[in-house]
Specification:
By secondary structure, the protein is of the alpha/beta class. It is built from 13 helices and 11 strands. The chain folds into 2 domains: about 5-255, Aspartate Aminotransferase, domain 2 (3-Layer(aba) Sandwich); about 255-390, Aspartate Aminotransferase, domain 1 (Alpha-Beta Complex), CATH 3.90.1150. The structure holds pyridoxal-5'-phosphate.
Length: about 400
């Protein structure tokens, strides 16, 4: 099946649910067993091709509907859900690491993932080394006998460097190291981590999968080899997600393809327009031919989402406020992946250690929503006029 078709059909079983198109929302904690024998057999493995509902937190048809869709789209073995994307990253890391282990973490990781490394993981005896996202196979030089996990995120948070995922995976395999990748930027629709050899993928479903800024959820997916370890970590940490949120996520998946096509075209059009502006020093978007990550992106990704960065020539805060405060269509706020356009200033300097961020220009992170491109451009054009007036 083509990806667009999978997005529509994976995880749905209408004819097991009275023909109703969408899966039922099962709100479950206690699950009753009709006999003592059935209760005693609850934890026996399910017959091949079947699944059992034994307790709310252990999985329900509602969680399988969204989990099967994500696993299928990413090319993984199976998917587990968490109440947020950050929880998914935490589950993946904690499931595979123990005291005394060494972790190679990409320098451009999502900020709170770094905080996890510096906090809980450090307290539990895991040492983290941050690596240059563009080092590819040269990562081999950072491997120690205790290195257990290499964590990737491509493109990087805020600065959008593209990683050579297959090269890193090859090195990891040769040293029996587990690769975990945060695949939120591309979503499962534009990048299939398991086709590139990644062992475990992390998805902030909060972003494009939910897609409407109205629920938080994460997903962790593993290949068959690492599935049991991931499942044990997820189970021990007591992770699950609310039934209504899982339903919203599975509903979001059905329109992922059409939404992402529009996020992509609006994002590229905005990036090209911004590139031509005198206020802009550089645009950080791997879909642009002159971007340093463009060749790798073109080789491995099937598209670009709507999230990218722009470095303006250094701006006074008051001028920047004049520009941003008056925007009518671009909201200011954290998270992204909904239908609406967003912008926030990005602070990178303290979030990098392997490759210092020396850019003194003002970094803005844009999320291109689903609005008409001409309206988005007009909104930014008026914003630049306010910036100019405030500088004068
Ligand atoms: C937002 C985000 C997360 C965390 O997702 P939440 O659902 O907000 O916890 C993780 N990784 C990346 C790349 C993100 O952008």
């Amino acid at each position: 099946m083509r990806d667009e078709t999978e997005v529509v059909h994976l995880g749905r079983k209408p004819h097991s649910n009275y023909g109703v198109v969408n899966p039922p929302v099962l709100h479950a904690s206690t699950v009753l067993f009709p006999t003592l024998a059935a209760l005693e057999a609850a934890h026996d493995p399910a017959p091949p091709g079947e699944r059992k509902v034994v307790y709310g937190r252990r999985g329900t048809p509602t969680s399988w509907a969204i989990g099967d869709a994500i696993a299928g789209l990413e090319g993984g073995f199976d998917t587990l859900l968490t109440p947020s994307g950050l929880a998914a990253a935490a589950v993946a890391l904690i499931a595979f690491l123990k005291a005394g282990d060494h972790l190679l973490m990409v320098d451009t990781a999502y900020g709170p993932t770094r905080t996890l490394c510096e906090g809980i993981l450090k307290r539990f005896g895991v040492e983290t080394t941050y690596y240059d996202p563009t080092m590819g196979a040269r990562i081999e030089g950072l491997i120690r006998p205790t290195t257990r996990v290499i964590y990737l995120e491509s493109p990087g948070s805020l600065t959008f460097e593209v990683q050579d995922v297959p090269a890193i995976v090859e090195v990891a395999r040769a040293h029996d190291i587990v690769t975990i990748m945060d695949n939120t930027w591309a979503s499962p629709y534009f990048f299939r981590p398991f086709d590139h050899g990644v062992d475990v993928s992390v998805q902030a479903a909060t972003k494009y999968i939910v897609g409407h800024s109205d629920a938080m959820m994460g997903a962790v997916t593993a290949n068959e080899r690492h599935w049991k370890t991931l499942m044990a970590g997820h189970g021990d940490l007591g992770q699950f997600a609310g039934a209504d949120d899982m339903y919203l996520a599975q509903r979001g998946v059905r329109t992922l393809a059409v939404r992402l096509e529009r996020h992509q075209s609006n994002g590229l059009a905005l990036a090209r327009w911004l590139e031509g502006r005198p206020e802009v020093r550089r645009v950080l978007h791997p879909g642009l031919p002159q971007d340093p990550g463009h060749q790798l992106w073109k080789r491995d990704f099937k598209g670009a989402s709507g999230l990218f960065g722009v470095v303006l020539h250094p701006q006074e805060r008051a001028a920047l406020a004049a520009m941003l405060d008056g925007l009518k269509l671009f909201g200011m706020g954290y998270s992204w992946g909904g239908y609406e356009s967003l912008v926030i200033p990005g602070q990178v300097r303290h979030a990098r250690s392997a490759v210092p961020w020396t850019e003194d220009g003002t970094l803005l992170r844009f999320h291109a929503g689903l609005e008409h491109i001409d309206d988005l451009i007009a909104d930014l054009d008026a914003g630049f006029a306010r910036l100019k007036a405030a500088r004068a």
